[in-house]
Amino acid sequence: MFSQDTIFQYLVRAMVLFTAMPIHECAHGYVAYRLGDDTAYHQGRLTLNPFAHLDLLGGALLIFAGFGWAKPVQIDTRRFAHPQRDIAISALAGPVSNVLLALVVLIVFKLLLAFHVIYGILSINVSTVMVTMLNYMVVLNLYLAVFNMLPVPPLDGFKVFGSILPRKFYFFVLEYERYITIAVFLLIFNGFLRGPIQGVSMLIYQLLDLITRPLDWI
């Protein structure tokens, strides 16, 4: 049987799956669309409907393992005026959307906490659950942003940093993409990469906390 804490984690991860993932993929498609590629538009991917972006395996991993992926938005680089630059920008849009969503959720988290302290609008049990849920959503969004920025295929980070790699090395990495992907997942499952990813996530969390510090004065 699952403990209450485990079930709670699964529920929050499911919320992230149906909020952060659609925003992440829609951001890829929208930025690509603005840069000249309408592939995502014609495939119906410029939407926040989570079922348009859902990948069953990636979604299940997100809920039960804490990391995962959605169905990737297809991009036709031939439609870009500056392919190398524009693929990097459209790839960066996904992780940036996760950070911005984390910022919005953190603002809601702090406002809810402030109003509860001042006006007692929620019961202690409800406020504890809401605050814990929102804080975990912030952390998980940042974790996903950092995870996706790892400079290995097929993650967004490789598309961003790959734009500045020598073409010979870029295609060499792509040739061994399958093995690199397996190696990265093994490193995450055995915990080797979890520490660095969590460390960078916490640094971004501290930055967002600093940005929203005025809300702490309420």
Give a quick summary of the entry.
With 218 residues, the protein is an all-alpha fold. It has ten helices and no strands.
Layout of strands and helices, then pairs:
Layout: H1 4-17, H2 20-34, H3 39-42, H4 56-65, H5 83-119, H6 124-148, H7 156-162, H8 167-175, H9 177-189, H10 194-211
Tell me what the structure shows:
It is a single chain. The chain has one domain. The chain has 10 helices and no strands. The chain has helices at residues 4-17, 20-34, 39-42, 56-65, 83-119, 124-148, 156-162, 167-175, 177-189, 194-211. The model has no long low-confidence stretch (mean pLDDT 86).
Unreliably modeled segments:
none
Helix percent reads 55-70%
Which structural class fits the helix and strand makeup?
mainly alpha
**Total count of helical runs of at least 4 residues:** 10
End-to-end C-alpha gap = 42 Å
Beta content: under 5%
Our count of domains comes out at 1
Key terms:
218 residues, single chain, 10 helices, mainly alpha
